[in-house]
Write a structure and sequence with these properties.
Blueprint: E1 5-10, H1 13-24, E2 27-28, E3 36-40, E4 46-51, E5 63-66, H2 70-82, E6 91-92, E7 96-102, E8 106-111
Length: 112
């Protein structure tokens, strides 16, 4: 059995979709609206974003994007930092990892 889709409630659908497309290579479905967006990865996952007035995920909730190397984690960290995102630098935990608050109100982990 394979997980094929996940839905996130977000406060800003276009900003969240653009973030996921720009930094993680997800592709938006043509004709998306401000209240809903479907994004696709290369492995068949569909990530949908739905507009919500307030988003209150538990503190430990996050989605993750695995990277092929620690160098790639470092590159994404620097790119996000250069673009104005505030986050702690990568550190050794369960992997070489860092977390970033995404536009729309959810957290993303980047790890290798």
């Amino acid at each position: 059995m394979k997980l094929n889709h996940l839905n996130l409630s977000v406060t800003d659908v276009p900003a969240a979709a653009d973030f996921l497309e720009q930094y993680f290579g997800l592709r938006k479905q043509p004709g998306d609206k401000k209240s809903f967006c479907a994004l696709f990865d290369d492995d068949g996952l569909v990530l949908t974003l739905m507009k919500a007035k307030n988003v209150a995920y538990p503190a430990t909730f996050h989605i993750g994007f695995g990277q092929e190397s620690e160098q790639r984690v470092n590159e994404l960290y620097q790119r996000l930092k250069d673009d104005g995102f505030e986050m702690h630098p990568p550190q050794r935990s369960h992997a070489w990892t860092f977390y970033v608050q995404a536009p729309g109100g959810f957290t993303v982990e980047i790890a290798a």
